[in-house]
Each structure stands twice: as structure tokens, then as C-alpha cells.
Amino acid sequence: MSARPVVLVVAPGDRNYRGYCLEQVADAYDVVLLTGAEPSWEKPHITDHAVVDLSDPAALLAGGRALAGRHDLAGVMTWDEWSVVPTARLARQLGLPTTAPEVMQGCRNKATARSLFARHGVPSATSVSVRTRQEAEAAAERIGYPVVLKPASHAGAIGVRRVDDRDQLTAAYQAAERTAGQSTESTSVLVEEYLDGPEISVECVTYRRNTTVVAVNRKTLSPPPHFEQLAHSVDAADPLLETVAPAARAAINALGITDGVSHIEMRLVEGRPRLIEVNARLAGDMIGHLVRLATGIDLARAAADIACGRAPDLT
Question: Is residue 201 within a helix (H) or strand (E), and if so which, with residue range?
């Protein structure tokens, strides 16, 4: 029997983009997996697994309880955007450390997040939730073009478009509406103020309500109207760290995140940070790997430590 603590990882994801996460967690923990398909590349890094329909919350909870019955779990974690809420619910059911599921739901719903940012004075964008093209058109007129249309609960900039004038609005609304319709969390569309400036992300670690801003990631985006992320750059000595840290901490506090790794997207408007959204999990696109190469800080390991109630090593 191993003397190492056991952590349950929900939805390991794609080997190319998430393989490093599982490897780094398995360096310090015995890993059991809750996955939607039989493990393949994951096998060298895990000790047990259960295959469930990850899109079915009841099945996910049942699979997690089954693994908890076979192992003395120290924590539950995920780096999958679609799984953050059910993973938090599973951790709560098992009596393990977690940020509250209700908080994770707020992170998943961009309309809720915008409301919380406004309530707590976090610099953000004007945002209106709409249900029809006519409402979207009226909101765009009030906000002023250009605007951004996006589904309230999705990820990866899917269905997100910049709209420069009224003629572009119908196609953008239809794209956002189609994407929003695939969500089980919110089917609404947001019309938002376009934040004109370079886009960055801020990688943060929160343990027992204390947030450390670890790194700034500078992005290269595709040309308008889309917002596809093409490249990333991380410098441990980036002077932006001091500029953006207060806004990052304020956003985490406004949402109520108490524990975990967060990926916070911002734009710098006239040199000042304005919030786009907070993802309450490890960044995608190999950003966590870049952070480790640049700073020596292992965000995947930090996420596992926090999930198990341990203080992360951020040296």
C-alpha cells in the first residue's frame, strides 16, 4: 500500500493539453480517475478509475462515491471547465475541501459574474443579458458599437464575436444563441461593451481566502470578429504583475472563491485592467506549463495540494 495521499481527478482531458497536469499531480499523489472513457495515456499515472457519463451530474456523483468507497480520498479536483460545478458538489458530499458549488456556478455564468463585479466595484465591462435579437439590438444601441456578443455559460471563446455595427449583429446573435442553446446552465446571450486594449490572463492561487498572483500571460489573438487565442507568453519578471494583481484579487473576492487555482482574463484599457471573466480552474492552452517553465511554480500540483487541504508550495 502506498503511503501517499489519494486525490480524485475528474475529467483528465486531452493528453496534448492536459497530460502535463496529470503527470505533475501523480508525482506527489496516488491518482484515481473519474473519466468519460476507458483510460489510455492516463494509465501510467493512475491507480484506479471509474468510467461514467460526465455530462450526467447524478452519474458523476455516483462514480465519485464508488471511488471514495474503495479509497481514502484526501481531495477531489478538476481542470475541466465543464466539470467545476459537479466536482465541487462531489467534494462537498464527500466532506472534502472545496470552494462552494454555488460560487463555482457564479464563475460559470458570466452574467452572474458581471453582477458581482459591479456590486463589489471590480473594473469590468458594461453587460446586458438578452433573450432575443431585438433585445440584443437595443442593448447594442445603448452600450454603443463596437460590442461583443457571447453566450453566458460557455468556454474557449466559442460563439463570441465582436460586432462593429447593426448590420453584423444578426449573424453574431445567431452564433451566440446556438452556442448558448447547448448549455445546461444558462441559455442567455450577453451583449457587452468592447474593451479596446491588449488581452492578458492572470494566473492565481487561492488558499483559505488568501490569493497569490503567480504570473501574467500575454496573449496573441486572431483578427476580429473572433477571439481565438493563438499564442501565449509568460515572463516571471513581467512588470504588469504589480499593475493587475489588485484587480485579480478583487475579482476572486467578489465571486467568493476561497480555494483553488484561477485563470483570470482581462484587457488593459488605457493601461488599466478591466475584467473579462474568471475561470475557476487551471488555464488551458499549455499556459500552466509555461508558468512552470518561467517561474518554477507548479500550478497543477498547487491545485492538488489545495484540493487536499494542504498549503501549496509557491516558491
Answer: strand 199-207
